TrEMBL record:
One of its GO terms (cellular component) is endoplasmic reticulum lumen. It comes from the Eukaryota. The keyword Zinc-finger does not apply. Residues 1-24 form the signal peptide. One of its GO terms (molecular function) is flavin adenine dinucleotide binding. InterPro entries: Auxin_biosynth/cation_transpt, FAD/NAD-bd_sf. Gene3D superfamilies: FAD/NAD(P)-binding domain. This is FAD/NAD(P)-binding domain-containing protein. Keywords: Oxidoreductase, Signal. The lineage of its organism: Eukaryota, Metazoa, Chordata, Craniata, Vertebrata.
Length: 416
């Protein structure tokens, strides 16, 4: 089996046994851990800290070789939008934490984020440095390079909640736990399907070098922080940018919700409102089609046009595309072709690692798993959703999906 992080020995963790239940024979080769935590991001590390302080028997599984690996690549343009207010004029620790959106809770004031970055909007690399220092300082039990690929539950009368959780990693190693804490975040990009969607590029892979967009005309799908972050990066190099989404822009300073568009990213609103070529458009993505011409240019068309022509062509996509290219509407605001179409449509929870019994119900448009007010799964006792993915409880109402919200979750759940 993979070697756990420092301080985590198999002598203290292994408690393997053979047993059977009315539901069939149970696995006999596994490592038993009381508390399994999946993910060594901010949410997983915060829970690990509380479990360690209360001397619980736990292990954190991390698929990469460092803590906080999400921040290796994201945000793509490397500026966090969680504020790092180093000075408030006050000495009260809780008051100061209210204005510190990056620090995890601990008894060591040297691990406040202000000691790791002087920037109001820190560089993402400082978050990586911070999270790995946090892991090392408290010698948290993190097993790296371990991808949990499957989660199932088996009934057993000995278990406190009537069942145990069995986890399988990429090397077919097995783990059993009484309590499962899922801190995997929302890591799956939203990729809608519509005619021509294959011609779009994703935020997760798009170039961050503005020179790659010189003289190009760009369509961005989405209207959140990742979309505006991308637009801000290339606005000085492009011919113009159009941004398409089904709803209007929600500005954080108007809604008071930190997940809405932040002022640090909204420069394109200036160029739009001051009529400097860039534009914002409203249309459900299910109602569009993208056609590529022989020169590689991308044309935006309405879905109903595509469906009508395709029906008349007996389902031939190639013929439909060619006819659509010549059906331009004179006053159609997006009649000019694009060089690039970039998808910036946010993220959702990865449900694929759960079997039918353990799979959480989808909540909030399936972006987040559905959980109780205690952050326990609605469908299965003993499984808790931790960190960003737990935001279905207070979505758009509070900051539970962000570090300065979910860092308090474990403290008040009884893990500390």
């Amino acid at each position: 089996m993979p070697k756990p992080h420092r301080g985590c020995t198999f002598a203290t963790l292994v408690a393997c046994m053979t047993f059977a239940s009315a539901y069939g024979a149970m696995p006999t080769d596994y490592l038993h851990i009381d508390y399994c935590v999946i993910g060594a991001g901010p949410g997983g590390l915060q829970i690990a800290y509380f479990l360690q302080q209360s001397q619980r028997h736990y292990l954190v599984f991390e698929r990469n070789n460092i803590s906080g690996s999400f921040f290796v690549n994201y945000p793509r343009h490397r500026k966090l939008i969680s504020i790092n207010k180093r000075y408030t004029g006050k000495q009260n620790k809780e008051f100061n934490l209210r204005h510190d959106w990056n620090s995890l809770l601990s008894h060591d004031d040297n691990l406040l984020y202000k000691h790791f970055s002087e920037d109001f909007f820190p560089h993402a690399d400082t978050m990586l440095h911070y999270l790995n220092n946090f892991t090392d300082r408290f010698d948290l039990k993190v097993q790296y390079n371990t991808t949990i690929t499957w989660i199932e539950a088996e009934k057993d009368p000995v278990a406190w909640n009537g069942h145990y959780f069995f986890l399988t990693d990429q090397n077919d190693n097995r783990y059993r736990c009484s309590v499962l804490l899922v801190a995997t975040g929302i890591s799956m990009p939203n990729i809608p399907k519509f005619p021509g969607s294959e011609h779009s590029e994703g935020y997760e892979t798009i170039s961050v070098d503005p020179n790659d967009f010189v003289g190009q005309t760009v369509l961005i799908l989405g209207r959140g922080n990742s979309a505006f972050e991308t637009a801000d990066n290339i606005v000085g190099a492009t011919n113009f940018i159009h941004m398409l989404s089904r709803s209007r822009v929600r500005l954080a300073w108007a809604t008071h919700y930190v997940g809405d568009l932040r002022a640090v990213n909204n420069a394109m609103l200036d160029t739009y409102q001051l009529k400097s070529l860039d534009g914002l458009l409203e249309r459900d993505l299910e109602n569009i089609a993208i056609i590529q011409d022989s020169k590689g240019k991308l044309h935006l068309r309405l879905r109903y046009q595509y469906d009508e022509i395709k029906a008349s062509e007996n389902g031939s996509s190639n013929s439909t595309d060619q006819r659509l290219l010549y059906q331009e509407i004179d006053n159609f605001s997006v009649r000019e072709p694009y060089d690039r179409v970039i998808r910036c449509l946010g993220w959702k929870f990865d449900f694929s690692i759960f079997d039918n019994v353990t799979k959480p119900q989808g909540g909030g448009g399936h972006k987040y798993p559905l959980v109780k007010a205690t952050y326990e799964s609605e469908s299965l006792p003993g499984m808790f959703i931790i960190g960003t993915a737990s935001h279905s409880v207070d979505y758009r109402k509070s900051a539970g999906g962000f570090i300065h919200g979910f860092r308090y979750t474990g403290e008040h759940q009884g893990w500390s």
